[in-house]
Design brief:
Its EC number is 5.6.2.4. The chain has 27 helices and 17 strands. It is an alpha/beta fold and about 600 residues long.
């Protein structure tokens, strides 16, 4: 069986991405397998391609209702019959779809996990010839994950009772090693059937901006990327509304999305973004789960997320087409308090709150680190044998490196002299020598390190403590009232065995520069093809990226196809796309050449 030929004929791609072929081969052999691949790594091909070959139906279980319609539309667009059943489908439409599925005409059926535990639906499901069960966003099965859903876990036993011996495929983009082990146990997947391609996104540049006017930065950034699609995440609805109104007042085509809007308005704003009627959407983290828009060029975070997993999933919505993209975190330490407040008010038990606080601590370490940002994230997910990415804001930071060993020894010595019993706030105030600490009943004023940083501000000293924590010289006890403890690395500094260097502080970090086109394709032709794509999208009621991705249009601009054979060689063009659009796009390219 020539899998590459099927990949090109059905989906328009010449080669598999890392991990895809191995997973597909395991599925075709009837195995239970799991794929751990980054967002945009092509997970869906791993069950979509087998579905075109296997004799029965492929059942895809996903918690992302918003993604189901996108995927079904995309599959039908390339001639692969698919449908979905979830709470958005009216009863009369549901009955019609069920009869259609029973006839054997459908190759992929997408369902929500809640449907599996519905007795009536499950009874109907067991009568189908199911060849493959695909579980998307599998990390939500694990209570160790950042987005655990009990309803997802409840469906596993019924799925195991499905008649026959269907293959299984679990897929996720954000799973720590602990979550991976938990999933393998829940789904009975052996180590040799787990394919990890790594979490690195080599087209994504991670950046952190500190000490800036966030609103001003957002306006300047959006204006410098005015024709590109982007998402701006904010922690509160109020922030979303303020940024939305500010950008709108400055003539930006912008939308917004949060739980305070009506269902109708949220749906309309999402559609406007998908259909390129607006370039930017400002949203809480309620937006984006399952948004398959391929041409998002940037993601800005106005507020720091609460976990590395959430952050990496959200930034993963940029550059899904493989072209260069940016993710910029606008960091202010005060933003951590919002998450702390939500954790304290949550209904979870002490262990759950402890877990969330530890995840927030890791996120704060990321925001303060001076090491490679991508490597920090990869280390978090268990990929410790990686090199600096060379493209993040820390790797590209050319500020002078200065030796701060003396100051670090003073700060660490203060922690030790305070018997490692206090948190950052008290330590910082003792180091600076604040009056309230001098008058404290614990007699901090008698310490030799009291006021040793009296020539520094509280903010400067606090940033130094954050730096020491982020880079492993101090460690946090976690818990409701975390205290700072000396680490082995910090102890080595105190003993004079290790020196510490740091980038020199600036009043503000320069703003991110807009991405520049690489000049490898004709921009004028690209804009002509975009317009043609938009006209097709409007006629068919589809988002433009479902006609062709930006990456496919740019490949056309490089290859300049003028006949069917050349057009078929374009990345992302298969037999159905050639039949539907080939003549029009070839004609547009020829007319452009003649006009030059």
């Amino acid at each position: 069986m020539n899998l590459e030929a099927i990949l090109k004929e059905e989906f328009g791609y010449d080669t598999f991405r890392p991990g895809q072929r191995q997973l597909i081969e395991k599925v075709m052999a009837g195995k239970r397998a799991m794929g751990i691949m980054p967002t945009g790594g092509g997970k869906s091909i791993c069950y979509q391609l087998p579905a075109t070959i296997l004799p029965g139906i492929t059942l895809v279980v996903s918690p992302l209702i918003s993604l189901m319609k996108d995927q079904v539309d995309s599959l039908n667009e390339v001639g692969i019959p698919a449908t979905y059943l979830n709470s958005t489908v009216e009863w009369h439409d549901r009955e019609e779809r069920m009869r259609y599925i029973e006839s054997g005409a459908v190759k992929l059926l997408f369902v929500a996990p809640e449907k599996i535990v519905d007795d009536e639906f499950y009874s109907w499901l067991t009568a189908l010839d199911i060849s493959l069960i695909a579980i998307d966003e599998a990390h939500v099965l694990s209570s160790w994950g950042h987005d655990f859903r009990d309803s997802y876990l409840k469906m596993i036993e019924p799925l195991k009772q499905i008649p026959g011996t269907p293959a299984w495929l679990a897929l996720t983009a954000t799973a720590t090693e602990q979550v991976q082990d938990d999933l393998a146990n829940i789904l009975d997947i052996t180590d040799q059937n787990i394919i990890k391609t790594g979490f690195d996104r080599d087209n994504l540049a991670l950046k952190i901006e500190r000490g800036i006017d966030k609103t001003e930065f957002i306006l300047n950034y959006v204006k410098s990327h005015i024709d590109e699609s982007g998402i701006i995440y904010a922690g509160r609805r109020e922030d979303v509304d303020n940024i939305y109104n500010f950008l709108k007042d400055n003539e930006v085509k912008v939308g917004r999305y949060h739980a305070g809007l009506s269902d109708q308005e949220r749906h309309q704003q999402q559609e406007d973004f998908l259909f390129d009627r607006i370039n930017v959407i400002v949203a809480t983290n309620a937006f984006g789960m399952g948004i398959n828009k391929t041409n998002v060029r940037y993601v800005l975070h106005f507020t720091i997320p609460g976990t590395i997993e959430s952050y990496y999933q959200e930034v993963g919505r940029a550059g899904r087409d493989g072209l260069p993209a940016e993710a910029v975190l606008l960091y202010a330490p005060v933003d951590l308090r919002l998450h702390q407040f939500f954790i304290d008010k949550s209904q979870g038990d002490d262990q759950y709150k402890f877990s969330l606080k530890n995840k927030l601590f890791e996120m704060s370490r990321y925001a303060e680190t001076e090491s490679c940002l991508m490597k920090f994230i990869l280390d978090y997910f268990g990929e410790t044998e990686t090199n600096p990415c060379g493209r993040c804001s820390n790797c590209l930071d050319d500020r002078e490196v200065v030796d701060i060993t003396s100051d670090v020894q003073k700060a660490l010595s203060c922690v030790v002299r305070m018997n490692q019993k206090y948190g950052k706030k008290v330590i910082t105030r003792v180091l600076v020598g604040k009056d309230d600490m001098a008058d404290d009943w614990r007699h901090f004023e008698k310490l030799s390190t009291f006021g040793i940083f009296k020539d520094k501000t509280l903010k400067e000293t606090s940033r130094l403590i954050d730096f020491l924590t982020a880079n492993g010289f101090l460690r946090s006890s976690g818990g409701e009232y975390p205290i700072l403890l000396l680490s082995e690395k910090g102890s080595a500094v105190l003993k004079g065995k290790v020196n510490v260097a740091r980038k020199r502080e600036l009043e503000r970090v320069p703003a991110a520069k807009p991405m520049v086109a690489d000049g490898s394709f004709d921009v004028a032709l690209f804009e002509k093809l975009r317009s043609l794509r938009l006209s097709f999208a409007r006629k068919q009621g589809l988002p433009p990226f479902m006609i062709f991705s930006d990456k496919t249009l740019k490949d056309m601009c490089v290859r300049i196809p003028t006949n069917n054979g050349e057009f078929l060689a374009v990345s992302g063009v298969g037999k159905v796309k050639l039949e539907q659009y080939g003549a029009d796009f070839i004609n547009e390219i020829k007319e452009f050449q003649e006009a030059e």
